[in-house]
Structure formats: C-alpha cells, structure tokens
Design goal:
The protein is of the alpha+beta class. It folds into three domains: 103 residues, no CATH class; 63 residues, Alpha-Beta Complex (Type Iii Antifreeze Protein Isoform Hplc 12), CATH 3.90.1210; 58 residues, SH3 type barrels, CATH 2.30.30. The chain contains two helices and 14 strands; from the N terminus they run ααββββββββββββββ. The strands form four sheets. Strands 1, 2, 3, 4 and 5 form a five-stranded antiparallel β-sheet that branches. Strands 9-10-12-13-14 form a five-stranded mixed beta barrel. A two-stranded antiparallel ribbon has the order 6-7. It is elongated, with a radius of gyration of 29 Å. This is Flagella basal body P-ring formation protein FlgA.
Amino acid sequence: MKRRALGLAAALLISANAAASEEQSDPLVSVVQHYVERVVAQQETSGKIVVDVVPALTNAGLCQMPCPFMPAGQRMRGNITVGVKCINEQGHDMPRYYRARIGIEDDYIVAARDLMPGTLLSAADIDTQHGDITRLTTSNAPLARAADVVGQRLTRRVVAGAPLQTTMVKAPLVITRNSRVTVIARQAGFTITAQGTAMDEAPSEGQLRVRMDSKKIIMARATAPGEAVAIH
C-alpha cells in the first residue's frame, strides 16, 4: 500500500512538472494571456477577471512576429478561441489557435428558498453568493446587488439557490387591468380629474390605456396606486 501511494505521488509530480515544462516551452502562452487581458480590460465588466490559456499540445516550431487576434463572433467570457498569426521558418504566414477561458468572479443574488411568480421580494427571500458568474447556467447576467431585487415582483418560479436574472423581476404593479383609475390631465395652467377603467396593468411610471367613463380611450402614465397622468 505504501509503495502504491509513493508511486501515485511520483506520477502526480511528474505530471505537474510536465505541464509546467510544456507551458514554459510555449512562449506564445504568455503572448495570448496578455492579449486577452488587454482586450477584456477594455470591456465594461464588474468583478475580478481571470484568464487561463491552455498550452499547445505540440510544438509547432518558430513563430516570428506573433500577432494575436480574436476570431469574430465570440463573447468575451467563458471558453474562447484565440488566434496567433505567425511567420514560420520558411517565411509563410501560419496562424495558430489556442483555447482560453475568461472567468468573472463577482457577487450574485440567489433565491434563499423556493419562490413563486408574483412574489414581492424582500431581503429574507434572497442570499448573496460569490463565484465565477460565467459558469452559471443562465441566459442573462445574474443580478449582483440586493437593491436591484428587493421590492421587485418575481415573474416566474425560482427554486432555492438559483441565480436571479434581470428577466425574472419587474417593478411592482400600481395599476391592474380592469381596476378603476383616477386620471389627471394638466393643460394651460389648470388640472382636470376624471375617472376611467384600466385596460392594461402598469408599474409606477409605466404606460397604459384607460377607457374613460366617457367611452374615450386615452394613454396615461401610472404615478401611484390607482392614479395616472394623461399623455397628450
């Protein structure tokens, strides 16, 4: 058993030394690393950026005047491919390609418990976690601040521990469909108030249609529960 453990430790040490030697033998790794870091630094991204470049599996020979480039159509996060234009020993332009990963370590908001659609979120409904947000299985960026979540209305069911995204929350409604609405119209220094029925739902500052008691349909902007200002 002791001999087997020593053999395993030796194998791991050899593997680690081989990986380090492989990275040192490929000077383009540092070229690609610095290039990606410069490109990412130009993006408006919060959090800590972590860039890892995978060394080439084989030595492709001399690379004169290396010029890294980013193939079109890639998002600057997660797994990417980076090209390097090289002039080889024969003077030919021979591009090489490297795999890299861009991680973004940041805080993000998750559900503290199972939440149902329509829930008005409070501080007790959420937790804050920290990690690489590019590894989250989300189609949109997760919300990062409690202030972006508390007081908002949930639009779908969210299980405990799942990240909250921008598409999952909306401002709470102040006017619901078919509810009575007081509409205020301001013109030339005077104010007119009339009653109507909401044809749409709306959050604060949201627009909606209102069917006035006179049967006329107008556009209005919600300002408070049951109140709106006519849009001229």
